[in-house]
UniProtKB/TrEMBL annotation:
GO terms for molecular function: endonuclease activity. Residues 31-153, 225-327, 406-507 form the Zinc-binding loop region of homing endonuclease domain. The keyword Hydrolase applies. This is Zinc-binding loop region of homing endonuclease-domain-containing protein. Residues 156-167 have a biased composition (Polar residues). Signal peptide: none annotated. It comes from Lipomyces tetrasporus. SUPFAM superfamilies: His-Me finger endonucleases (SSF54060). Residues 152-174, 327-359, 540-564 are annotated as: Disordered.
Length: 564
C-alpha cells in the first residue's frame, strides 16, 4: 500500500483525534510537541492502522496537515512513487513541531534556503526591531518564525542555533560532531562510559579480553546497552573508546557510510577491553581476517608471532593466543604455507600515506613561494578585511598562468596558497586527500569564496563548514550601545566565530534585505498564504512585560485546525 493510499484512508476527524492525543505541550514559540521520541532525522512518527489491521508509520506533521484540511498540499509532497520536488517546511525550524500554523508546503529548494535562519533571533528594543529572515521579501515565501531577543535584558552573543544533523561522512582526525549518532554519543561522558564498562564487565580470559555480560545479537559487532533518557543504544566497544578519552577516534567510525570501523585486535567481538579496541579503515579491518585462528609460538625464549600487520604503517599487531614449549608444532612459516598471504598495502588504502596527485603537486609549493603569489594577487581589501584578487569568473579565485605553477602542472586556488603561506600545508592536505572522498574543507569565516586572507581561512570538517551557512548573509547588528553578533558557532567545541559585516541601525523596524544569498530557483506555490497574498504579522510594540522575551513574532493569521 502506497503512502498516498494510506493517507487517503485517514479521515479528518481521525487525524484531529490523533493530534489532540499527542499534543502534550506548546513551547514559547508556539510549537506543538509530544512526548514521543524523535527518529534519527528529528521527526516524530506515529502508528497508523488502516482497516483495523494493517499498521503503517507516518510523520506526525503529515497527520497535522490532514487535520487542518490540507490533504491536497500533503499529496504534493508525496508525488509519484514517493518522489516529489515539494517538502513540508517547518517555519519554526523545529522538526518535532506539528502546529499547522508552522507548516507550509514549498519546493525543496526553498526549504533548504531556510537553513540560513536556523538559530537566528529577532532583535527588539524600545522603538527598535530587526528581523533577520530575508525570505518574506521573496514572492510567495513566508518569513521564518523566530524567537525574540531583547537587547536590554540579554546582550549575550547568540547561542540559539539548533544544529541540524549533518549528512557528511567521518574522516581521519576529524574531532567535530559529524552526524546524528555523533550528537547522541556526545551525551555520554568518559565517567559515565567507565561506569558502564565496570557494570557490564564479565570474566577476563587468558588473552586479557574483558568479556561482556550482555549477549551480542546477530548483525551487531558488539553488545549494546539501553540508556534511559538517551536517544542512542551504544555498543560497549564504542563506550570503551569514550571511557579512554578516544572520542576523536569514535567520531571516525560513526555514520552508515563511514570508511572506518571499530576493530577488535583480539578478534572477539564480546571483548570490551579498551586496549584491544581500535578504529581503522575497512580495508585494514578486512586484512586482519588472515590472522583468525592463528597463535603465537614461544620456543626457547623466542616468540614467533604470525601477525604481519604490525609491520604495516599505521596498523597494529593482532592480539593472538600463545603456545609454549615443544607442543607448539607449527611455526608461522608453516602455518602461512596453507594460508593466503596478507596483501601489501595499496595506494587506495585509507591507512597509507597520502598519494593523491594534486596533493603531491602542491607539495612543491613552499610557504615562501605561496606568500609571494598571495602578495602578487592581493588587489582589494574589503570592509571586513577580505583580500580579493579582482580576477573575474568562478566562485573562488584561481591562479593559472604563472611559470612556476606551470612547471609543476598545478593551478591552485588562492585560498589554498594562503593556507600554505601560513605554514598550514599539513592541514590543507586533509582537504585534498583521496580527491572526492575528502571530508575536510577550507572554510571561509567571512563567507566570501574569493577571499584569501589567511586570518579568514580555517580547515575544518565539511559538516561544520555546512553549518556555517546559517550565518551566510547575516550581519553584526549595532544599535546604540548594543552590539549583537548572530553567529553561534564559537560555542561549539573547536569551531571559530564567523566574520560578518556590521550594520548600524537607528530606531525603527528593520528587516534583513540581503537577497543575494537566496540565488535563483523555483519559487514554489505557497498554499498557505493569505487570500490577498499578503503576510499577516503581529506588530512589535514598545511596551511589553517580562514574559514577552519568548513571544512569537511574525505569526501568520491563525486558522482553526479544521478550516480551509
Amino acid at each position: 500500500m502506497t503512502a498516498t493510499s494510506v493517507f487517503d484512508k485517514i479521515t479528518q476527524e481521525k487525524a484531529n483525534e490523533m493530534i489532540t492525543q499527542r499534543h502534550v505541550r506548546t513551547t514559547d514559540l508556539g510549537c506543538w510537541e509530544s512526548n514521543s521520541k524523535a527518529d534519527p532525522r528529528g521527526y516524530v512518527r506515529v502508528k497508523v492502522y488502516v482497516c483495523g489491521e494493517e499498521k503503517h508509520s507516518a510523520k506526525i506533521h503529515q497527520i497535522s496537515l490532514i487535520a487542518s484540511n490540507r490533504r491536497d498540499e500533503l499529496k504534493m509532497t508525496l508525488g509519484r512513487r514517493g518522489r516529489s520536488t515539494y517538502d513540508i517546511s517547518h517555519l519554526c525550524h523545529n522538526s518535532k513541531c506539528f502546529n499547522p500554523e508552522h507548516l507550509i508546503v514549498e519546493s525543496g529548494t526553498n526549504n533548504r534556503r531556510r537553513k540560513i535562519c536556523n538559530g537566528q533571533k529577532i532583535l527588539v528594543h524600545d522603538g527598535f526591531s530587526y528581523h533577520p529572515c530575508p525570505h518574506g521579501k521573496v514572492e510567495k515565501l513566508r518569513k521564518c518564525i523566530l524567537p525574540l531577543h531583547h537587547l536590554e535584558k540579554d546582550n549575550t552573543p547568540n547561542s540559539g542555533e539548533q544544529t541540524s544533523a549533518a549528512t557528511t561522512h567521518p574522516h581521519p582526525d576529524d574531532i567535530a560532531t559529524l552526524d546524528a549518532d555523533a550528537d547522541d554519543y556526545d551525551m555520554i561522558t568518559p565517567k559515565m562510559a567507565q561506569k558502564l564498562l565496570d557494570r557490564y564487565r564479565g570474566e577476563t580470559t587468558g588473552l586479557g579480553c574483558w568479556l561482556s555480560k550482555l549477549k551480542v545479537h546477530p548483525g551487531h559487532s558488539s553488545s549494546r546497552v539501553i540508556l534511559k533518557n538517551l536517544p542512542v543504544r551504544p555498543s560497549l566497544s564504542r563506550v570503551a573508546l569514550i571511557a579512554t578519552n578516544r572520542r576523536d577516534e569514535l567520531q571516525q567510525s560513526l555514520g552508515k557510510r563511514s570508511y572506518y570501523l571499530v576493530t577488535h585486535l583480539c578478534h572477539d567481538n564480546r571483548c570490551i577491553n579498551p586496549e584491544h579496541i581500535i578504529v581503522e579503515s575497512r580495508t585494514n579491518n578486512h586484512r586482519r581476517k588472515t590472522c583468525i585462528g592463528k597463535t603465537a609460538v614461544v620456543r626457547e625464549g623466542a616468540t614467533d608471532h604470525p601477525c604481519p600487520h604490525g609491520s604495516v604503517e599505521k596498523m597494529r599487531t593482532c592480539i593472538l593466543p600463545v603456545e609454549h614449549g615443544q607442543d607448539a608444532v607449527a611455526t608461522s612459516e608453516e602455518r602461512d604455507a596453507s594460508t593466503e598471504p596478507t596483501p601489501a598495502p595499496d595506494l587506495n588504502d585509507e591507512a597509507t600515506e597520502d598519494t593523491n596527485a594534486t596533493t603531491g603537486k602542491l607539495d612543491h609549493i613552499t610557504p615562501i613561494m605561496a606568500q609571494e603569489l598571495v602578495e602578487k594577487y592581493r588587489a582589494v581589501t574589503t570592509d571586513i578585511g577580505c583580500w580579493e584578487s579582482g580576477l573575474k569568473g568562478g566562485r573562488y579565485g584561481r591562479v593559472l598562468a604563472t611559470p612556476l605553477l606551470k612547471s609543476h602542472g598545478v593551478s591552485p586556488f588562492l585560498h589554498q596558497l594562503a593556507v600554505i603561506a601560513t605554514n598550514r600545508g599539513d592541514e590543507l592536505k586533509k582537504t585534498l586527500d583521496r580527491s572526492s572522498r575528502s571530508r575536510f574543507d577550507v572554510s571561509h569565516l567571512c563567507h566570501n569564496g574569493k577571499c584569501f586572507n589567511p586570518e579568514h581561512l580555517i580547515v575544518e570538517s565539511n559538516a561544520n563548514n555546512l553549518r556555517r551557512q546559517t550565518c551566510n548573509g547575516h550581519k553584526v547588528i549595532i544599535y546604540g550601545n548594543f552590539a549583537y553578533h548572530p553567529c553561534p558557532h564559537d560555542g561549539v567545541e573547536k569551531m571559530q566565530k564567523c566574520i560578518l559585516p556590521t550594520l548600524q541601525l537607528e530606531a525603527g523596524h528593520h528587516e534583513n534585505d540581503t537577497m543575494e544569498l537566496l540565488g535563483n530557483g523555483d519559487l514554489a506555490l505557497n498554499p498557505s498564504e493569505t487570500e490577498d497574498g499578503s503576510d499577516v504579522a503581529i506588530a512589535l510594540t514598545d511596551d511589553h512585560d517580562d514574559n514577552d522575551d519568548k513571544n512569537v513574532s511574525d505569526v501568520p493569521s491563525l486558522r482553526s485546525a479544521t478550516s480551509t
